Input
Amino acid sequence: MLEKISVPEMLCLAGRCPLLDVRSPAEFLRGHIPGACSLPLFSDEERHLVGKAYAHLGQESAIGLGLSFFGPKMLDLIACAEKVCAEGPGSSKAGNDRSLILHCWRGGMRSAGVAWLLDRYGFRVYVLAGGYRAFRRWCLIQWDADYPLQILGGYTGSGKTDLLGDLAREDQAVVDLEGLARHRGSAFGQMGQEPQPSQEMFENHLALALHRAAGEQPVWMEDESQRIGNLQIPRPLYRRMILAPLHFLDIPFEDRLQRLMTTYGLLETQPLAEGIQRIRRRLGGLQAKEALEALHSGDRQHCFRILLEYYDKCYRRALQGRRISRHPMSGADASVFKALLIRLPVEPMVSNP
Output
């Protein structure tokens, strides 16, 4: 059985049956629907040759060349599809009907060819209408959706990421921007993290996270600059974040300094020095020199004190004009802030911490 479905229908089905991407490996690597498995009809070189034939010899020649690549791969494609169905969502259900979803770039010949083959072999095939391009268009729509955003703010070292995790464990809707970006959002944010995804993959994951968090309850996000490492929060979404209520966790400086010592204190000296060099011009020559000297002499607490003062100053500037509710407390009792946020008992007021 073969059926065309929309992006929302695909998202509903994706948790119950596998999603197969039949584009070339390079296309998949550049960006794909999170959770999809790569089942390329053509290699990168074959795709290039088919495209060249289409441009210079016409559609019939391109189709003929494509079929010459397709034919010898039929059995392998079927075997791969069977394996994915056996191991993927729904595989443990009794009477699994071998359902799967597949797509190419725009719902054209590649997905049609593989869908025809798998349908003939007895799979139940759902084809994403419009292909991956339709999914990317759907992602763009998410940036303008009217999500009930609530922003969690606080100076560096306030434990905002941990608090977001606490909220998520209380079944609150949370979108972890730094987790999706694999970066802590500072010159030192890449340390201890996996390489960042491409901008396209970051947007794909972010769109799905927003979609899954949507509902009547608030959607919690950490206050960020628009840039997180090498990635950019989409501008329309970032504008909504700036306008949303900001709940500011105000932790004393010394408590935050100790948290930084715990987080970064055991890291190697060279990456920390490189991070300081990256912000040298903004930090100021004398402050950068003093921070580096403290770092290399083993006085990391003094080094981090200089850096924390710098980041506090930057963040204060970024808070101008925001709708802020300020919540002073010590680091020791910050966990009680979770209950406060869940109840949202106060109306955000305009004031700068």
